[in-house]
Design brief:
The chain is an alpha/beta fold. Helix content is about 50%, strand content about 10%. It has seven helices and five strands. Strands 3-2-1-4-5 form a five-stranded parallel β-sheet, sandwiched between helices.
Length: about 180
Amino acid sequence: MGWIGRAAGVGIAGLAVWAAVAVWAFRFPAVDPPARTDAYLLLSSSGGLAAFQAGLDDYPEDAAIVLSTPDELRALPAYQNACARTDREIHCISPVPVTTQGESIAFATLARDHGWKSVTVISQVSHTTRARMLMQRCFPGEVRMAPRDTEHGIIWARSLVYETGASLKALTLRGCAADEADI
């Protein structure tokens, strides 16, 4: 076997290792059992959108609901109506920039202002590992993850590749600062 065969073998082995780690981290992430928290944060992701569409009345009445509403969501009538509700505590945040770290920073500021000590974060399954890492950097309280399974087929494969890159980028940053918030 020549150098091309060895290089191909190393490449295939590397791809197999990446696939195994990526499936473990992004398809079967650590998920927390349901428990009451001070707030429920619905990220502006397919999982957060699915949870929003399922309705906001399933969350405990004494817990705050925080909707990440970047401009494209804020323009939708359903979000406008939710943000205008007065029958329960709903907060709509507009993260700047519109990234997971931007959402984490915006939530942490809101949580500090309200004295919240715990949050359940809702996103899609593939986003769980990275969202947890970024939330734990920005929010000093308990972070619980409750993902929604919204990705299937080619969408899931695309998410696997995207989350690999985004997670590697997030790992290179250590803090929770607005100047690092483009991830």
